[in-house]
Design a protein that fits this description.
The chain has 21 helices and eleven strands. The protein is an alpha+beta fold. Among the domains are: 123 residues, no CATH class; 190 residues, no CATH class. Helix 1 crosses helix 9, helix 1 crosses helix 21 and helix 15 crosses helix 16. The radius of gyration is 26 Å and the shape is globular. InterPro entries: ABC1_dom, Kinase-like_dom_sf, Prot_kinase_dom, UbiB, UbiB_kinase. Pathway: Cofactor biosynthesis; ubiquinone biosynthesis [regulation].
Length: 518
């Protein structure tokens, strides 16, 4: 009960700040049920005058609410299906920058993590050079046994950040349950699942050993790519609260003057950006999902270099085939094949017509072939495609939405380097290579081999599964008499939960009004 009251107060505070800073302006009232339209109207009455557009207001509100909500805003930037593409693009610019914590605290975190004094770990350890809500970065040097001096980047966890995030995440879970209870239409957007995905993402970001593992995996996947590199993690100096990797010297990708002065070909870099991302997504199924210009450098050899691996995306073989085939289908104007891929993947329910779906996709594809190559947006095509699939009852696929959002960012970065970049011509070699390798004779043989292993595993598990099924049937038979009572109790519990969730939302609204007129 005390916890519920605490979450109500926190929810009221969040609602008030969002309303006061105009963070509710990006919401479309037409998509809400009547009672939530009324709540939105009341909230909009609290807005301060003279504010900017909706997405900008949302960024200001999240910044005021603190680091946890800044991180939530950055996460929403990967979910345009929830906030809309315009707001997602603006949230991508949300700056996760806060004042650095004292040098002494950082040194204590490092020494505690490794159980040794700092002087035994590093020859030098700078003041913080960058700070964010979760961690800050220091520049350090080490001297190897052979006398070689190396420069390293040391990322140090902010003290107390885990406890603060856990507290705020509990409040977010509560608010997601309230939204779900009061707006069944919101279930397509899966608010509770979104918060849980955020929780897992943040918890993974707060264990730097996992980020180092992501860095290592991406480095291994791209080891043979001559135009892309990943810094090497230093496992000896990495722990849960400290991540150490090689220091990257190079020009930031958004500094076009520095790139040109260093003799780099901006047009070639534009192609490298899009092809590197597609190789990661389609070839490897593991991609950097935060490829904004601040996380990309170009080293002295002209190689694109990525940093900050806290947000990564994964695609299974089915999703990679889906992506490759729809991109190739649009390139070749084979809309029937694009439609069939959606049905084969199970993304569109089988009661719909493949031909009707192909017709809807043609309405997206044909206009792009009437325009110049540099006017065609691959990301916009995917955005329109997902809009159309919603009409055919395609449920939200989180991994595909993250892919879509990352592609929007990657395309913007690539086009900033070469405004005339032909995205489709750049993508075609990567897509064709993957399809030829995985859907050709060799790929089919490998697929048959995997299927045979799966069948063998299932056959080997049959005796154990039979025993489990027998035990379950015995228990069901023994418990059969109590099923009706349990179902009735479950129904009463759900009815009470709906009542308290409704009461909670009105508590938040009333709390926001009280805070507004203090």
């Amino acid at each position: 009960m005390i916890g519920a009251i605490f979450h109500l107060v926190r929810g009221a505070h969040v609602g008030f700040v969002l309303a006061r800073e105009g963070g509710l302006a990006f919401m479309d009232p037409s998509q809400l049920p009547p009672h939530l339209r009324l709540a939105l109207k009341v909230g909009r009455m609290l807005e301060r005058p003279g504010l900017g557009d909706g997405a900008a207001r949302l960024s200001v509100a999240l910044t005021r609410l603190g680091p946890s909500y800044v991180k939530f805003g950055q996460f929403l930037a990967t979910r345009p299906d929830i906030v809309g593409m315009a707001a997602a693009i603006d949230l991508e610019k949300l700056q996760d920058r806060v004042p650095a914590f004292p040098q002494g605290q950082a040194i204590r975190v490092v020494e505690t993590s490794f159980g040794r004094p700092l002087r035994q770990l590093f020859a030098s350890f700078s003041e913080p050079i960058a700070a964010a809500s979760i961690a800050q970065v220091h520049k350090a040097t080490v001297i190897d046994a052979d006398g070689t001096q190396r420069t390293l980047a040391v990322k140090v966890m902010r003290p107390g950040v885990r406890e603060r995030f856990q507290r705020d995440l509990q409040a977010m879970r509560f608010m997601a349950r309230v939204v779900h209870a009061l707006s069944p239409q919101a279930e397509r957007l899966r608010p509770r699942e979104v918060v849980e995905i955020l929780a897992r993402s943040v918890m993974m970001e707060m264990d730097f050993r996992l980020e180092a593992a992501a860095m290592s995996e991406l480095a291994q996947n791209t080891a043979k790519d001559l135009d892309f590199r990943v810094p090497r993690p230093e496992w000896e100096f990495t722990a849960r609260d400290v991540l150490t990797s090689e220091w990257i010297e190079g020009a930031r990708l958004h500094d076009h003057a520095a790139l040109a002065a260093a003799g780099h070909d901006l047009r070639a870099l534009g192609r490298t950006v899009i092809q590197s991302f597609l190789r990661q997504a389609i070839r490897d199924g593991f991609f950097h999902a935060d490829m904004h210009p601040g996380n990309l450098f170009v080293d002295a050899e002209g190689r694109l270099t990525a940093v900050d691996f806290g947000i990564m995306g994964r695609l299974g073989l089915k999703e990679r085939r889906f992506l490759a085939e729809i991109l190739l289908g649009f390139i070749l104007r084979d809309y029937k094949r694009v439609a069939q891929v959606h049905f084969e993947a199970g993304y569109v329910p089988s009661h719909h017509s493949v031909d009707d779906f192909a017709q809807a996709i043609r309405a997206i594809g044909e206009p792009i072939h009437q325009r110049r190559a540099d006017e065609i947006s691959m990301a916009k095509v995917l955005t329109l495609l997902f809009d159309v699939t919603a009409l055919f009852d395609m449920s939200t696929r989180t991994e595909l939405v993250m892919l879509q959002k990352t592609m929007v960012v990657v395309e913007g970065v690539a086009r900033s380097l070469d405004p005339q970049l032909d995205m489709w011509t750049g993508a075609e070699p990567v897509v064709r290579t993957w399809i030829a390798r995985n859907l050709g004779p060799v790929g089919r043989l490998e697929g048959a081999g995997r299927a045979a292993l799966t069948i063998a595993d299932v056959v080997a598990d049959v005796p154990d599964l039979s025993q489990r099924l027998k035990r379950i049937l015995i228990r069901l038979d023994e418990a059969g008499t109590g099923d009706a009572q349990r179902l009735e109790a479950f129904a009463r519990q759900e009815k009470r939960r709906a009542f308290w969730s409704t009461l909670a939302l009105w508590g938040i609204a009333i709390g926001a009004l009280v805070m507004a007129f203090r």
